[in-house]
Structures are given as C-alpha cells and as structure tokens.
Amino acid sequence: DGPICPQTETLSRASFPKGFLFGTASAAFQVEGAVEEACRGPSVWDIYCRKYAFRCSGDNGDVATDFYHRYKEDIKLMKNLNSDAFRLSISWSRIFPHGRKEKGVSKAGVQFYHDLIDELIKNDLTPLVTVFHWDTPSDLEDEYGGFLSQNIVKDFMEYAEFVFNEYGDKVKNWVTFNEPWVFSRAGYDEGKKAPGRCSKYQNEFCDDGRSGYEAYLVSHNLLISHAEAVYIFRNKCEKCKGGKIGIAHSPAWFEPHDFNDAQDGASIERSLDFMMGWHLDTTMFGDYPQRMKDVVGHRLPRFSREQMAKLKNSADFVGINYYSSRFSNYVEKPDPSKPSWMQDALTTWEEKNVFGVSIGSKPTTGALEVYSRGLRKLLKYIKDKYNNPEIVITENGYGEHLEDKDSVELGTKDYNRRIYLMRHLLSLHEAICEDGVNVTSYFHWALTDNFEWQNGYKHRFGLYYIDYKNNLTRHEKESAKYYKHFLSQGTPPS
Ligand code: BGP
User: Fold this and answer.
1) Percent of the chain with pLDDT strictly greater than 70
2) Ligand 1 contact, 32 CB (< 6 A)
3) Residue 291: inside a domain
4) Which residue's C-alpha comes closest to atom 4 of ligand 1?
5) pTM assigned to the model
6) Domain coverage including residue 383
7) Distance, CA 109 to ligand 1 centroid (Å)?
8) Is residue 353 part of a domain?
9) Cα atoms found within 13 Å of the Cα of residue 389, Cβ hemisphere only
10) What is the DSSP letter of 370?
C-alpha cells in the first residue's frame, strides 16, 4: 500500500494523502442576507436578533455578506485559493418559508441552491451541504416550540427528504446537523444563542429561569431527527446512492487543570462525555454515555429500542469543528453560577469536574487560546474510542475582534490567523501521517468574514476581509495568501 503520506520537504497539500480535500466553510444565516427575498420565511435567528438586539451585538443577518447575490464572486475567491471543496448550509425557511411543505415551497429558494451548487461543480469545487445550521423556521418555533417538541422530527424528516431528493444527485457529501452541543446548550440553557432560552443558570443573557432539562430534550429530539434523516438518505433516496452523510460536532480537547492532580486528569473523560460523547456516542454506539445517564438521571430522556437501532452507526463520517482546547478540573461541589448542564456534570459523582479555563499559547481565537496540539490529541482519542472512523474537519478557524474604526489594512494583516492555520495543518498532518487517523478533508472556517452570531460583524473569522463600510468589498488577507500557497503545491484531486 505504501506509506500513508508522501514525504515532502515543506508542509503543503503535497504532504497529505492523495485525494485529500481542502476547502472553506460557511452557514446560510451568517452569509446569505436577502432575508426577505423570494418568499423566504423568518428563522429563529431573524426574530432573536430583532427581539434581543444586544444578544447579537446590535447586528442581524438582513444583509450579511450578501452571498445570496454574490456567490459567484465568492466562488472565484475559492478558486483563487486553489481549494477543492466548499461547505454551505441550506436555510430551511428559504425552502419551506413556513417550515412545512403543505404551507408552500419557495421555488426561487430551491432554485438558488441549485444555481449555487451548479456553479460550485462547474468550478470543480465539491459541495459539502449542511441540512441544518441552527436556523429553525420561526413558524415551527411559534407553533410548538421547535426542537423542544417531538413534532420537529416529522417536519425535519420532510425537509431533509425534500433536499436530499432535490440535490442528492449533485451533492454527495452531507451533514445533517451542525454542532448539536452548541445549539442545545447555548440556545436552551445559557440563552446565548437563538431561541435564547435559559435554565436556572443566571448570566447577562438570562433573567428568567426554568428547570435545567431543556437542553437535554432539544438534543434528544435533534438526535432522533438526525437518525430518521440518515435512514431516509440511506433507504429512501435513489439519487443519494453513493453519497455519505454525517453530523458535525464541536469538541474541545481537554488537559488537566493541574497536571499533578490525578483527579483533574481523570476528569478529562468526563468533560469529553458531556461535550462530545453526548452526541457522538449516541450516533456511533446508539445511546448516551453511561456516565451521563447516571448523573442526569430522569431528566435525560431515553431512546426506544428502535430509535437506538437507527442511531447506531448513523454517520458515515464524524464531522469535527475544532477551535481550541480547555482545562478540565475536579471540583468538590456543583457551582450554582454554572449552567445547568455543567452543574449536572458535578452532582452525584465523586469524580467531578468543570471546564472553561483556556489553554495554550497566546494570541487567542475569540475567548479561546490557540492550542493546535489539542487537534492531534483529539483526533487520536476519536480514532481509539470510536473504532477508527472516517473524520472530516468540518470547521477550524481563528476569530479576531476588530472595531469599526480599524482600517482594511489592519484587518488584512492577519498574521495570527496565518500562524493558526499553519499550526493546525501541521497538527492535522501529524494526526494522519504519524497516528494513522483517517481524516479525509479539511474545511477552514471561514471563506469570508461574516455574521458571528452573538458577536455580530466585529468578530471576524474570514480568510477574506469584508469591508462592511464599503459595498461589502472582499479583500485578500495574509492567511488567504498562505492557504493559497499551501494549496498550490502538489496536485489537487481530480
Ligand atoms: C461554530 C459555528 C460556526 C461559526 C464558528 C465561529 O460554532 O458552527 O457557525 O460561528 O463557530 O466560532 P465561535 O463560535 O467559536 O466564535
């Protein structure tokens, strides 16, 4: 078979296994704009940013980067990078403006994604499509509480089946859900993301209180929806034959808070269970981690036998969004100032932990410090625990806060992002070539700056700078130049 990786003098695409795909990523609400065009219905994010402007830093997705109108220009940027693939998400309410087919299909919305996908393919860019990246149609939220209700399963199945049948002959790589852990925890426990519901945990976002079970319920309904959609993809979609489907998780890697403390060391597994195993064990092994079941008790819903059977092995690949790592430390008692789900991780067990302290070397990516070695360690952990699955790095990127007064020049000299990218590609290379982890593609978050959820437009992740004050002009950053150079060496997959 020969060595896994070619030997090269410097790190470039040529150092990676043949056929490895490199790309960039995006999500509908963060880039599209055009929120009222072609009958698109509102999503929970439109409502959330309007109702609680401060929770979106006073910004919203009305225009975003205007990708809806400028996608051809952005595809040129992808070509300019020498990239091979692009991750996009479909906006549910652009397809079914009111959430359900019987209430109307937007033909123009459906056509938009055809045009976008066709343009990608025409440019030799492989699309990876996320079915749901957090933008629940607002009507479903109003009608029955969105993912809080089991009704969502049937509606998600209908939506997923529709998009599989519509685009399945052109799109061979799919992600059902983006980051369930962030969606349920931030949206239904900490109030930091739409729809902004809070548990008993109080912070600047939360002035109300509910019992801390909603995040578990939401994830439960989401996981069942995932399993049903995968079942449809594999068994009921002729056009989808030969395609692959997965789900994108958002784990950090953990290091012990005190390297000399054995309890801190032991708490790592526990942190990983609550941050990753919650959804990854379930889609690989068919049920929640035992540790979670023991601690959360009756507030963690149970799957039926049939649901477990559908959940087991319900991902052809494991999607990983990796940004940074954290410390895990053992604590004696649950801390009421922490979110409910985090308190749960502490309640009845001897081995207790809490996480949230950052790790690694400065500079920081958002609140998190840069720790590229964590990527390698995480990938090795997944290889060993989950029986060497195929892994796709569905996101990895560096966030940086700029003020309105900051110049384009400052924004494009993103040397920190360039170093972040170099280091993470190196760590990824080590994971593949030295540890034998089966990673098949890498998507950098993000192609361009965009709407960064609660941080709005000031928090930038792009390889290309968006000049929001000047017609949304795109400018190449230093990081883009590096990625382009890296991708220009060696042969892109045909
Ligand atoms: C992920 C989301 C992306 C993007 C990214 C930015 O959680 O899937 O949509 O927003 O994060 O990073 P962060 O949320 O760490 O600022």
Assistant:
1) 92
2) no
3) no
4) 452
5) 0.95
6) 18-251+316-321+368-488
7) 25
8) no
9) 25
10) E
Would you say residue 346 lies in a domain? no
CA of 395 to the centre of ligand 1 (A): 8
Distance, CA of 281 to CA of 421 (rounded, Å):
29
Domain harbouring 103, CATH code: 3.20.20.80
Average pLDDT over residues 359-377: 73
Q: Is the CB of 400 under 6 A from ligand 1?
A: no
Distance 452 CA to ligand 1 centre (A): 7
From CA 49, how far away is CA 450, in angstroms rounded? 15
Cβ proximity of 246 and 315 under 8 Å: yes
Q: Is 321 in the pocket of ligand 1 (CB under 6 A)?
A: yes
ipTM for the whole complex: 0.96
Residue 13 placed within a domain: no
Distances in whole angstroms, Cα of residue 381 to Cα of each of 109, 260, 437: 41, 21, 10
pLDDT value at 360 more than 90: no
Domains held by the chain: number:
1
Active site residues: 179, 395
Per-residue pLDDT tens digits for 133-165: 999 999 999 999 999 999 999 999 999 999 999
Q: Which residues pair with 245 in a beta bridge?
A: 174
Contact of 39 with 110, CB cutoff 8 Å: no
CB of 461 closer than 6 angstroms to any ligand 1 atom = yes
Distance 44 CA to ligand 1 centre (A): 17
Alpha helices in 247-304 (DSSP H): 262-272, 278-285, 290-296
For the stretch 22-81, pLDDT in tens is 999 999 999 999 999 999 999 999 999 999 999 999 999 999 999 999 999 999 999 999
Q: Is 453 in the pocket of ligand 1 (CB under 6 A)?
A: yes
Nearest residue CA, atom 6 of ligand 1?
Answer: 452
pLDDT at 492 over 80: no
